[in-house]
């Protein structure tokens, strides 16, 4: 969701300024809040563009797409510079948070590259995988991004008296970011319906993790639970970089028949409820608490789950009629 991160900044601001989000919106938020929301989203766009280059999305690494690569590089530089320009209006403390936020996301690219080089190790070694995917890529990368959005809202409020609440919310949103990364990894398996699936991804990008050699929780699980025929197909997609619709449907079948989809989906929905409970226990007034709780509901109230069930019903029907 392109509005998720700036809304975390806004929700945090409302919590620490002790204001009702609806009243803030109706009276026009302070300029500093809007600026820091814009700063967070500008950094987010810069990182999406960088990820496009890193993962070769939209075919930008193809020889005939050099202009698209140039546009992506320009996008990274322009949005990063704009975000830092905004943060500098409000002093060194906020600029430091923006820079730290940027550094954490850049650091999260490292484990992806390492996993691609040592694919077999991370595919079967639990300790190595957990340290790479959960501790660095998810916790320090995406989780750290959301924690810093909480801190930007805290600084925008102008109040410094409740650091215990700040640390509590940062911890919640680090865990939210970890879960969101796992949701994103699951979403890589949805069948392409239209050319553009989301604001940063089109249909040709689906199964990008599998094709690119990035190891994610669902990929590890279907490798561990699939039969030899399934594993041969997964290896073929990885080694050849192929992405036909029939192959994609076979991978989706594996995702469901191995129980991988159900296990991850159930875990994420449970995590969403748990996070809302943790936010409630922080003692935040109802007027501002509901806003942050609503943001975490993306983990259990998401069109992605409906798309998966539509895809699986289609594939299951084809399997049934084939026999």
**Oligomerization status of the protein chains:** single chain
Tertiary shape: globular
Helix and strand content put the structural class at mainly alpha
Uncertain residue segments: 195-200
Largest sheet: 2 strands, antiparallel
Tally of extended strands? Answer: 2
Task: Tell me the β content.
Answer: under 5%
The largest sheet has its strands arranged as 1-2
What is the helix fraction of residues, given as a range?
over 70%
User: Order of SSEs, N→C?
Assistant: HHHHHHHHEEHHHHHHH
How is this structure best summarized?
With 323 residues, this protein is an all-alpha fold. The chain contains 15 helices and 2 strands. It has a two-stranded antiparallel ribbon.
Descriptive report:
This protein is an all-alpha fold. 77% of the residues lie in helices and 2% in strands. The chain has 15 helices and 2 strands. It has helices at 4-17, 21-26, 31-55, 66-88, 92-117, 119-124, 126-157, 163-187, 208-212, 217-225, 228-240, 245-257, 260-281, 286-296, 303-322, and strands at 196-198, 201-202. The protein has a two-stranded antiparallel ribbon with strand order 1-2. Strand 1 and strand 2 (201-202) form a beta hairpin. Helix 3 (31-55) packs antiparallel against helix 4 (66-88) and helix 3 (31-55) runs parallel beside helix 5. The longest helix is centred in the middle third of the chain and has 32 residues, at 126-157.
């Amino acid at each position: 969701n392109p509005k998720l991160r700036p809304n975390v900044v806004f929700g945090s601001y409302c919590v620490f300024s002790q204001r009702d989000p609806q009243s803030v919106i109706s009276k026009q938020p302070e300029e500093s809040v809007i600026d820091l929301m814009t700063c967070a989203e500008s950094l987010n766009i810069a990182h999406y563009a960088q990820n496009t280059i890193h993962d070769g999305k939209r075919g930008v690494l193809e020889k005939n797409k050099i202009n698209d690569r140039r546009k992506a590089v320009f996008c990274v530089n322009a949005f990063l510079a704009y975000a830092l320009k905004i943060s500098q209006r409000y002093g060194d403390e906020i600029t430091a948070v923006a820079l730290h936020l940027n550094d954490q996301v850049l650091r999260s690219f490292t484990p992806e590259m390492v996993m691609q080089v040592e694919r077999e190790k991370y595919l079967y070694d639990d300790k190595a995988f957990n340290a790479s995917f959960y501790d660095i890529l998810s916790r320090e990368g995406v989780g750290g991004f959301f924690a810093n959005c909480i801190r930007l809202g805290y600084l925008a409020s102008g109040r410094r008296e409740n650091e215990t609440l700040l640390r509590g919310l940062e911890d919640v949103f680090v865990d939210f970011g970890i879960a969101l990364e796992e949701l994103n990894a699951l979403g890589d398996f949805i069948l392409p319906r239209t050319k553009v699936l989301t604001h940063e991804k089109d249909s040709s990008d689906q199964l990008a993790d599998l094709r690119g050699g990035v190891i994610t929780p669902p990929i590890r699980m279907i490798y561990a639970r699939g039969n030899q025929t399934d594993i041969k197909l997964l290896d073929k997609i990885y080694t050849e970089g192929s992405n036909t619709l029939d192959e994609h449907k076979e991978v989706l079948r594996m995702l469901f028949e191995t129980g991988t989809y159900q296990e991850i989906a159930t875990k994420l929905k449970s995590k969403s409820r748990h996070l809302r409970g943790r936010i409630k226990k922080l003692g935040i007034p109802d007027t501002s608490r509901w806003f942050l709780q609503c943001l975490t509901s993306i983990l259990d109230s998401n069109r992605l789950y409906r798309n998966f069930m539509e895809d699986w019903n289609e594939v299951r029907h084809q399997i049934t009629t084939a026999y």
